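Lest this sound abstract, we let one protein speak, letters for residues, whole numbers for local backbone shapes, and leave readers to judge:
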Amino acid sequence: MSSNSLSLKQLALQKFKRNFWGVFSFYFILLVGFISVFAYLLAPDDSQYANQMHLSIHSKKPGFKVEMLIIPSQLKVNQSALDKVFFGKKNTDTEIPISDYNIEGKTLMYTEYASDGLKGVEKIIQINPGDNLSPYVKSKTFYFGTDKYGRDLLSRVLVGARISFFIGFVAVFISLIIGVFMGSLAGYFGGKVDAVIMWLINVTWSIPTLLLVIAITLALGKGFWQVFIAVGLTMWVEVARVVRGQIMSAKEMQYVTAARALGYNDYRIITKHILPNIMAPVIVISAANFAAAILIESGLSFLGIGAQPPMASWGAMIKDHYNYIILGKPYLAIIPGLCIMSLVMAFMLIGNALRDALDVKG
């Protein structure tokens, strides 16, 4: 039995490896996962939420370069290295875009950056004589340009990947726990238990998903984890229906009858015998739910009830800049839109590849 099970797994793995788009999507999702975890190590702006604003250089095109004057803060911030890696640096220094500067003794004279050919304000600060200029003035390149608040768009995209990626995991995890539990009860016991659970499933399914998520979000409050929970609580019905149908057919199989004859209790029969044999369609629907969760979160952020500012989110970035499409700077909304599209497409392609690979009859 174990060798047969192993051979089926190997067959499924071989079929999956032959699917180019499935393998490509798998590695792409791994890449996005790596970026999500280590976003602050990769982002040019490693401040918390990549929220360093420079209003004088707002809405600049990709590849824009500027000299940045960094004035060190006298405040001391106690922050561990681990906290900086995963949650960003608590930056208290002042960054000022400048177009020109000059040093005379202890005096640093600079001209603030001004766009549209205007001349910026000239200011003076005192520095210690003999100091190296590199801690004060640095050249900075914005590879994706800047948003309407002058923040680095590339850094916001990298940090925003964290919300879109992890909401899939949290939402699918919640939907699997509730959906597998409810579907197992309905499919295995049937009768009144099945009728009550199916009534609950039909009522939940009859409510538009976005409206249900909005209601749950408003009840739990606006925030990061509230959105994750709200999306997860709306996606369990599809899992429950699939599990219910699979268990209704599986419980009549001979191995279930043999398990009952051996005196095993219902809990063991469901968890040890039935569920391991019906997980293939559940895995496939979970991949589709990943994509659905990302789209729902993006829609909520676009409506303003998802992740709240200054937290970076792809949906919120589209909301902030969708009107720039007709103002000659469409990339401010197109870049995060392409990120959403590519990640959703990757999950849909890997779902299709898993469906083909786990189809033993095929």
Observations:
- The radius of gyration is 27 Å.
